[in-house]
Design a protein that fits this description.
Layout (H helix, E strand, L loop, with lengths): L1 H4 L4 H27 L3 H15 L5 H17 L1
Length: 77
């Protein structure tokens, strides 16, 4: 790897790869949101999850477990 790190174009290539990966992730996220957030309760759940994740700084793993519990509860009750 040291030989590759000395090349001047490597940082520019890595920036392009990073931008392409971010664009792909944004595209996939919008596609998932468009296909899964179709009702008012699912929209409320998505907004609540975003608020808990971003504003309350809740751990993502805990948020996933909470979503599983809410999903099972809405299915069985």
């Amino acid at each position: 790897m040291p030989r590759l790190e000395r090349r001047p174009e490597v940082p520019h290539v890595l920036l392009g790869v990073n931008a392409a990966a971010m664009g792909l992730m944004v595209h996939v996220c919008f596609g998932l949101a468009k296909s899964s957030v179709t009702t008012l309760p699912s929209m409320a759940l998505a907004v609540a999850a975003f608020v808990l994740l971003e504003k309350a700084r809740m751990d993502a793993g805990l948020l996933i477990l909470l979503g599983i519990v809410v999903g099972f509860a809405s299915y069985f009750f």
